[in-house]
Amino acid sequence: MTAAEMKRAEQALIDSGISVEELMRRAGQGAAQMIWRVAADMQTVVLCGPGNNGGDGYVIAQWLLEKGVDVRVAAPLEPETEAARHARSLWQGKTVSLHDAQPAAQFVDCLFGTGLTRAVGEEWFADFTRLFAGAKRRVAIDLPSGVESDHGTLLNDVPAFDTTIALGACKPSLYLEPARSKMGDLVGIDIGISADSNLEILPKPRISGPTSLDHKYSRGLVAVVAGAMPGAAQLTAMAAQKAGAGYVKILAPSGFSSPHPSIVVETVQDMADLQQKLSDKRISAIIVGPGLGRDGRAKELLTIALAAAAPLVIDADALTVAGPQFTDLVKGRSAETIATPHGGEFASLTGRAPEHKIDDSRQLAQQSGCSILLKGSDTVIAGPDGKALISAQDCPWLSTAGTGDILAGIIASRLATGLSAYKAACEGQWLHSRAGQLAGAAFTPEMLVDQIPASLQECL
Predict the structure, then answer these.
(1) How is domain 221-457 classified at the CATH fold level?
(2) Cα angle 252-256-258, degrees, rounded to a multiple of 5
(3) What's the whole-model pTM score?
(4) CA 30/CA 385 separation, integer angstroms
(5) Average pLDDT over residues 15-25
(6) I need a surface site. Which of 130, 234, 247, 344 has the fewest CB within 10 A?
(7) What's the rounded Cα separation, in Å, for the pair 422 and 282?
(8) Cα separation, 155 vs 324, whole angstroms
């Protein structure tokens, strides 16, 4: 949940008769139990700010004290909220000023949490950093201090924690870079929050395999529109086949070779010929972009692909060719459409690099009427209806040439089964990330393709 959504959800609990003090007790004691399970006997300093996050810290400290932990509180100011003052009144241990506090083996950060919009002051952050550096284990409560909660923005030069304990609900910055790399292990504490959100974490898909009644066309015919560079289109076709498409064909200029005997290459004589081939009603999904080129011919190929009736994946060069006209080009399509830009391609479409990935992806999806998969280590998928999703899977080895072409092929294969563009993107993203994890270290694109069936098998 965003900071605003979290505030509304907490207020709903309060309106139902649950006090702020009770919510603080649930949050603090839940976090304390998690800390104690991992490091029961570790000397601990809890840094408590003046707000409710600091109040959580006093609850944590008191619970640990009652368990026999050597714990003390460091506080720059007295509590400023009624609930935090109540928590402070129940604290029976020692409190020292932030400036006078000495490091302990375990550092628990309750200085600021959800809702922070400006940098922590230099003096406070200097002492924060000193205590952090002197610890062997560092735990952030809700969010590390210096992290803005909604967009992954670092307001200070935040160090990397060992563990972050989210209270009530996960916040977007737990999964968005550059904040994501500062979180360490993520743990959630339930405090009774129950509310819908238009933002989700990418789930493992549940995929149905073919039945005895299926054939190659019912499983999906994927057509790859090839251009100037054959290698990218070949990778895309191989990925679509490995992800379960029943039939994959490449529509290409003369001299184009197939990457596998089972993948058909149909030579395109001219633009009229391509238009006719793409009018085949058996085609379940089209991919345009990988290896397309960026010249006048590439623009013609994109125009014809956009005019086709089948669902469409727009990737790579096609996005650069579309440029600022992207929204006008795609918003009239009646078939399911998804675009898969990385940050640079997103800038080509909108005129600026994505600053707030969730908000920017949602805006482009709503303006264009198609789903957007904004690639990166913190991939965001957004639909025209405002739904959005963050991929929490992590595989840094995917940062290599060719893997984006493979992602496009996997998505097209899922799109060809009749899924919505948004759901096909979600399933394709999960399969792609999992295949990267299975491929191990320093894999080639071909090695990644070979792991797609194993990734798919886990979802059946």
Answers:
(1) UDP-N-acetylmuramoyl-L-alanine:D-glutamate ligase (3.40.1190)
(2) 100
(3) 0.92
(4) 36
(5) 95
(6) 344
(7) 22
(8) 31
